[in-house]
Structures are given as C-alpha cells and as structure tokens.
Amino acid sequence: MSEETTELPAGLRGVADLDLKPALEAMLMVVDEPATEAHLAKLLERPRRQIAAALRELADDYVMQGRGFELRFVAGGWRFYTRPEYAAAVERLVLDGQTARLTQAALETLAVVAYRQPVSRSRVSAVRGVNCDGVMRTLLQRGLIEEAGTEPETGAILYRTTNYFLERMGLRGLDELPELAPFLPEAEAIEAETQEGVPSFDPDAPDDGPGAPVPRGIDDADDQTEF
Length: 227
Hints:
Elements: H1 3-6, H2 20-28, H3 37-44, H4 48-65, E1 69-74, E2 77-82, H5 87-94, H6 104-116, E3 119-120, H7 121-128, H8 133-141, E4 145-150, E5 157-161, H9 163-169, H10 187-196
Antiparallel strand pairs: 1-2, 3-5, 4-5
C-alpha cells in the first residue's frame, strides 16, 4: 500500500483498509441489537475468524482495563453492556425513579412460555390458574415473546420467546436457562386441567370477544408492566 493511501482520512479509505478494532468499536456503539460475527465480517470485508478474534481481544481488554462497560456475546451476537457493578449509576440516569422490573405476574407468564415454548395462551393460563391474556399482550408489545405458528390440533396461536428475550436475560441461547422445566406440569396434565377445571372458552379469540370467561381466577390485567 502506498504512503499516500495510508495517510488518507478514515472517511476516504475503503472499509477493508480501516483499523479493525476501532472499526468494530464504532459499529458496535450504534447497534440496537447484538451484531453477529458473520454480519460484521461481511460489512468490514474481513474473514470471520479475524473478526471473532478481534472481538474476543476487545472483550478481554475492557475487563483488564476495568472499564465501566464490557463487550458480551449474547443472543448470537456481540454488543456493549454496562458492567453490573455500575448498575446503580446507570439506573439513576436512565430510570429517574421509574421501575424497570416486570411484575410477578409477567415474570411467571414469561417463565411458562420460556420453558414450554411453543405454547398457546390456553396452556399458559392453565399452568398459572388465571387468564393471562393481558400479560401475554404486554409481553408481545415489549418484544419478549412472538407468535410461532398454530397448534395443529386446535388451531390456537403458539408463542415463543424472542432474541430480545435472550438479550435482556443475558443468555446465549435457551439451553442456558436454569433447570426449572421439571417443576412445570407436563403437557398432558395441562390439557386435562384445561378440559376439566377451566370453563370452556377460546383463549385465542379476541380479548374483548363474547364467551371468554376468566379461568379459575382474576385476569392479571398487566398492561402497565414495565421492563
């Protein structure tokens, strides 16, 4: 490479000529979701192995330097996060006295979806013993769960957790969920309870439609849940 080329400002140089680590830092500063190594490699016109090595070196550097942020591999990609020990300072800036926690009802519902996905609203309601329509609607709006097709036998809409859920929980994948599934009822037991202990209604019908009584409890009505 000629001396003239190396002295060009960064904005006038080709992407492949940029210093790799600073380029990665600049890109990761503006992402709104974890960036995959493959995508970064394509954008920077570098081999994926080179990108992966540089990201891990950056992550180690931040830890050794004791920076207030860290680079994590979460939900299949890389993103900057503030370090946990500085959470109090960040909460003061961002929350300004507002709660950022899910309600107990929302956490319970999210846990059922996470461990039983894909799962219908009727099965979630059967596990919790209350109508979960309001909470499910909130979790959908917050991007923590999403539709995942329909149940072949009943046509009910199925739900699963999203990559945003993994990101917020700091998980690489669902296999990192704690071993809690054995404590949840089996699908057969849920089906039997749905048929015997819950009034007959279509949980996947519109929430304000007729013929939708609340099963065995009060509707959680968790529309105001914050996360």
